[in-house]
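Researcher: We are triaging several targets before committing to wet-lab work. For this one, the compound of interest is zinc ion. I'm pasting the protein sequence and the ligand SMILES. What I need is the predicted three-dimensional arrangement of the protein with the ligand bound, expressed as C-alpha cells, so it can go straight into our comparison scripts without reformatting.
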Amino acid sequence: MNEVCGDYVVINPYVWLSKACVRFNTKIKEIYVVSGDLGESDGVRIVTHGMATTHTHLGLYPIRNTVVSGLNLDEWVRNFVWGWERFLRENPEVSYYASLLAIRELLSSGVTIFADMHVNEDMVYEAVLESGIKADLSTPIMGLGVYENYEEALEENLRLLKIVSEPRVKVRLGPCTPRLLSPAAFREVVELARERGLGIHTHLAEVFEDLAWLKSKYSMTLRDFIKFVGLMEVNAIIAHAVWAEEAIDLLLASNFIISHAPRSNVLLGDGRAPIKSYLKNQSNVTIGIDVAPTYDIREDLRAYTLLHYEGEGIPDLQEAFRLTTTTAYVSMGFGKGELVEGEEADLVVWSVKDLLPGNPVAQIVWGNSFVEEVYVSGVLVFSNGELTLTRKPSREIREVLNNYLSEFLSRQSSK
Ligand SMILES: [Zn+2]
C-alpha cells in the first residue's frame, strides 16, 4: 500500500482537507486527517487529483514554438504542419520520441490523461505504454493533406483498435474537420463509431472559415452539419467550438465534450469561444492544450481565467481546474475526477513555495507550484522532473529528436 500526505489534500476543486493523507494501491483506499506533524518538506505540500487535457497533437510537440510565428491557422498549417506531418509519416519513430517528451511535460504540470489525434498514433500508444500515462487516441481522418484519401486514414484509425489492448487507453475515431472531410464521408465515420460503440474526436468551428465553407460548398449551417453526420448519437470531443454558438442547444447534450484551447485560439487568431454561454447551458467544457509553446496545462488554466473574465466581480479561480478534473474525467468516462475512496489513484503531489493559507487550488494554478510526483492508477510515473518508467532518460530522447529535427530543417531549406 502506498501513501502520500500533504498540508492540503484537495478532494475536488472546491473541497479540501488540511493535513491529511491518501492511502492507495491501484485505487484510493482511504483518506484521513492527521493530527501530528507531517515531517520535513520544502514548501507547502498539496495532493490533488490528476488533470486531463481533451485535445492534443503530441506529434507536433517538436514544432510547438511555430504557433507564435504570427500566422493565422491556415497559414500556420500550410507553412509548418503539412511538411512536418509528411516527415512524420516517413519516420514514424519520431512520433514516439516526440510523444515521450510531450508526456514528460504534461506530467510535470499534473496531467494524467490526454486525448490525442494525430498520424502514427500507434507510436503515440507505444509512448503511452512505456510512460504509464492514460490516453484517448484517434487518427485524423481526412481526404486531403498527408493521406492519399480518407479511407487510408480510416484504416489507420481502425488498425489502432486492434493494437490497443491496455485498459487505461481508449480509442476513438477522428474525422478531422469538415474542411478536410466531406459531410458524406464524415457521416460514414460517425456511423461506424456508433455501430462499434466508439467515441468521436473532431475539430468543429475552429475558425469562421469553417462555417463559410459549409455554407458555400454544401449550403449547410453548422447545426445542419451536426445533425446530418449524426454527432448527437455518439460521445464526441469537439475541439474548439469557437464559432459554434448557433448550435449551443445541441452542444449542451451530455454526449458532447467541448475542448477549449485558450492559448491556441488566441495565438492562431481563431477568435474567442463563447465559453461562459456554454457553461451557462451546462455543457461539458474542458481544456485542450492543442498545440502551444509549452504543454504545461497551468498556462492554459491561467489563460482561461484571463480570457473569460468579463470585467465584473471576482473570477472563479478554481473553475478552470474543475474543467480539467471532474468535468473532463466524467465526460470522457475515466471516473469521477476527484479524490474519493474507490477511484483509481491518479494523484499529483505538488509543492508550492510561499503559500499563504486559504486556497490551495488557486495556488497550484497561479502560484509558484512544482510537481514532485505523479501516480497513475497507483503507479509512480513521474518523480523529480523525470519519467520513472521509460527506457531512455529524457536527455537522450531530446538528442535523438534534435537529430531528426535538423534533418527535417535541412530538407526544408534545400527545397
Ligand atoms: Zn487541433
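Researcher: Any quick observations?
Model: The pocket of zinc ion is lined by residues 55, 57, 203, 239, 290 (CB under 6 Å).
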